[in-house]
Amino acid sequence: MKKTISTIIISLLFIATAFSQQKNIVDTYLTANKKVKVEFYQTNDLYYSEVVWKAEDAGKDVNVGDILIKDLKYNSKLQQYDCGILTAKGKTLDCIIKFHNTNQIKVFMKYGFIKKEVIWTRV
Question: Which domains does the chain show, CATH number per domain?
Answer without folding.
Answer: 24-122 (2.40.128.520)
